[in-house]
Amino acid sequence: MTQPLPDDIRSLLRQTFGERLQQDVALANYTSARVGGKADALLVANTANDLADLVQRLRRLSVPFHVLGGGSNVLVSDQGVRNVVVLNRARQVRFREQANPPTVWAESGTNFGALARRAAARGLSGLEWAAGIPGTIGGAVVGNAGAHGGDMSGCLVMAEILHPQQAGAQTPYARSEWPVDKFEFAYRSSLLKRQAGQAVVLSAVLRLERSTPEAVQAKIDAFTEYRHRTQPPGASMGSMFKNPPGDYAGRLIDAAGLKGHRIGEVEISSLHGNFFVNLGQATATDIYALIDLARRSVAEKFGVQLELEIELLGEW
Fold first, then answer.
1. Is 194 inside any structural domain?
2. Which of 61, 64, 136, 246 could form a disulfide with 83 if both were Cys (CB 3.0 to 4.6 A apart)?
3. pLDDT > 70 fraction of the chain, expressed in percent and rounded
4. Could you say which of 32, 108, 190, 239 is catalytic?
């Protein structure tokens, strides 16, 4: 097991960040599955500039960190996280309705589903597919989030990225505006995800279309009704596995006879096999054991290796 942050590092963090530094914070409070151990240290970023400043200061201190957004696509180990967690609460939003086409600029900690609903209220179309997504804009960019035939790669105009500079540069990070092509988006993936931990999304500009509040809301209502029929309520991380080419992870897990299977307080949903639900007192260890069971069963029965869509944080 990785050792906790040494006392000298904790002291350095206290000197640098003062009362902003929180120590030994339960991360279960910040994840949609409501599981996970403690972070040795936690800092909250309230704006994109604040996020950039925190990340650069941590880099100068040579202290490892992880940026956590909505916690909807991450499983935190019961042993917790032995570095600094930066909680992204940068949520400023600006609609540019007079642009052609209209766009919205949002900081990376903005809740994506809430942003889609705000666009709908203004009669702006293009984000209806995202209305049920509980994660943040930053996480959606990194993971190329998608639903109902739409995804981030189809609506992103550009994003501001904080990225490492080459050794010897005056500052450890630089801020750059990346056009959509630079992200090299793939199914539930991007260049940022494939190079995890190197860059941080600060904000994004999304393309919209003019419509009416009634028309946009009707689409959202239809997607919401479908989601309620096909996905379980309760605490989960959303889709556990990526869909393999030409198939569906949920179908394979169902065909392997695992719908409704439980380990501890975690259940593979009987409604959708790709959702693992916390029944109340689940542990990350139980969820991981169920992940392992699903992977082994599908591989043995169908020769398919399921790939996680969620991110594992901490030791496993």
1. yes
2. 64
3. 98
4. 239
DSSP characters over 117-150: HHHHHTTEES-GGGTT--SBHHHHHHHT-EETTE
Question: Which of the following is catalytic: 82, 91, 117, 188?
Answer: 188
Nearest-10 crossing angle of helices 213-230, 112-121:
150
Q: Is residue 1 part of a domain?
A: no
User: What are the percentages of helix, strand and coil residues in the chain, rounded to 5?
Assistant: 35, 30, 40
The CATH number of the domain holding residue 167 is: 3.30.465.10
Q: Give residue-wise pLDDT tens across range 4-17.
A: 888 999 999 999 99
The chain-wide mean pLDDT, for the chain, equals 94
Check: CB of residue 240 under 8 Å from CB of residue 232.
no
295 has catalytic annotation: no
Q: Which pLDDT tens digit goes with each residue over 258-289?
A: 999 999 999 999 999 999 999 999 999 999 99
Same domain, 78 and 111: no
pLDDT digits (tens, 9 = 90+) for 122-143: 999 999 999 988 899 999 999 9
Task: Clarify whether residues 299 and 259 are in a common domain.
Answer: yes
Both tokens of residue 287? 């969820």
Q: Which residues pair with 22 in a beta bridge?
A: 42
Q: Are residues 185 and 245 in the same domain?
A: no
The values of phi and psi at residue 139, to 5°, are -65, -35
